[in-house]
Amino acid sequence: MVFLESVRRKSGSSRDGFPFTVPVIRTFDALDVGAPVTFFVGENGSGKSTLLEAIALAASLPIVGAQEGANDPSLRSQRALADGLKLVWRTRTHRGFFLRAEDFFGFQRRLARERVEFSNRLREIDAEYRDRSDLARGLAKGPISASLNEMDRRYGSDPDARSHGEAFLHLFGSRFVPDSLVLLDEPEAALSPQNQLGLVALLLAMGERGGQFIIATHSPIVLALPGARIYSFDDGRIAAARYPELDHVQLTRDFLNDPDRFLRRLAPER
Predict the structure, then answer these.
(1) How does the average pLDDT of the chain come out, rounded?
(2) Peptide bond into 19 cis (omega under 30)
(3) In a shared domain, residues 10 and 85
(4) Taking the model in full, what pTM does it have?
(5) Are residues 157 and 250 in the same domain?
(6) Counting beta carbons within 10 angstroms of the beta carbon of residue 20, is it exposed (0 to 12), middle (13 to 18) or buried (19 or more)?
(7) Can you tell me the distance from the alpha carbon of 216 to that of 222, in angstroms, rounded to the nearest whole number?
């Protein structure tokens, strides 16, 4: 399902400094994202993540594992860009989220700290209430136990038993609700090739439940998702691209076909 049709630049919204010095941002006028899945692909520094972050802020999407966008210091420059964007909706949805791979790792660490803090507090209550009734002890422990149970329900009782990739997919799946706009920035950073295929399967299943996705990625595996719209951010402009023609795909294919040829170029003395 499509909720967000296009992203446009408001007239007179350009400013000095980053991110307006990035070529694709400086020349950006409008972009049609009216597809169930839209991919942004390009080299590091090309502007794909910057525009994705600005869209997430303009859409007021919650950022999983990070501060609210209005308070996140890492998004200060992107907020200036977001203020200059106009989102054109087919149907406005207030469901969805924005997830960056870097925030996922911080989120996992925060969950682990909170779990330890909750467990320690439960032990302290047991000690403090050892001479009081079970009812009094239970009432004191109730809110903390409820928080732990909710963490277990949403993220599993033993997050350490999962690999980073499995934990990422579980978090992604647990946050999704039907009729959502979801933005992902380089999700493959947390995923093995096998789990990247798992992400593709999740995206296909979630699309059937009314999800729309805009994803910045380098992964040839993720980019192969059937029916996706792809925009390349290379060469200082945003242009529609076909999967077989992407530099990421061609380079990966050429390397896998003859890795020694590339390695000889990198280390001619070998």
Answers:
(1) 86
(2) yes
(3) yes
(4) 0.79
(5) no
(6) middle
(7) 10
